[in-house]
Amino acid sequence: MGKKVEKFEKMFADYIGTRSAVMVNSGSSANLLALSVLANPGTENRLTAGDEVITPALTWVTTVYPIVNVGAVPVLVDVDPETFDIDPTRIVDAVGPRTRAIMLVHLLGNPCDMDALLKIAEEHRLFLVEDACEAHGATYRGKRVGSFGDLATFSFFLSHHISTIEGGMVVTSNETYTELARALRAFGWIRDLQKRDSIAEEYPSIDPRFMFINIGFNMRPTEIQGALGIHQLRKLDAFIEKRRENVAYWNDRFRKHDRFFQLPEETRHSRHVYFGYALTIKEDAPFTKEEVTRYLESKLIETRPVMAGNIVEQPVAQVLPHRVVGSLTHAHRIMHQSFFFGNHQKVGAKEREYIADCIDDFIDSRT
Question: Annotated catalytic, 272?
């Protein structure tokens, strides 16, 4: 990594509205790095072994794994059935004496209720980490997600809003967290630190090119990834508008099927960026999720579950230390009755009409 990575970091921080950004090799690494910063001895009142981090049960697995990786315990709570995002009322119920942080997820590009989450975090003095890996450019009250929390993360994997093939970013406005993230990203080296010269002066007998001040990983991105990011970021807003245009079309086409489907909707104060287009099969529909997805797959329309679904129902939960607070009714329902299909800038009028026609044909065959 070099000048192109540095340029992309600066551009991305400016776009999100944070003071700094630290690029890494994946969004999963970004989550691990963010949690590792909060658990590092260099962080005041840091996370320690056995501390609890509240996070939604409906998520991708690498939101939860890093909590365990740093020795903390994920506390899994239910989500809002309409937004698929973490339910703030469930967070209040889950706060206990060991609670230290909230790890929220702007799922499928839909911003969480940041008013409620910021209030809870402030009242209980909790760290707030935004997993915005699926929400590039989404806004809440006109402010871009990723700029609310102590730290936030983004992914630039192939399927995301912009791509560096693999890649991720940690953003923050806290200078201490920035310096820790830069050190931890690459072995605990001082090479990328703002204060590297003054640190080197304290240890004159050590070659400053190979001086290590902290523990760390190897999460470095490449210059190729940085170069891709620079050019992709310039296109992001246009990509988002195309996604929103597609969703407006599908919602308009599928209104007539609302007795069978719950459609995705933009919530108040939010600008949804629609990572994918999700449909939920209602309880009294004359068909199952499996039937409609099999039909779509037969028409060469790929479908996917909503991320990992309810992570408590995944086999990995048997080896994943965790605590559940309250019922996970909505996470369970979404896991078994919801799915999504792709939505991106290459989905044009022809493709989106084909998808809508196929769903119309399926409904006609079942009613």
Answer: no
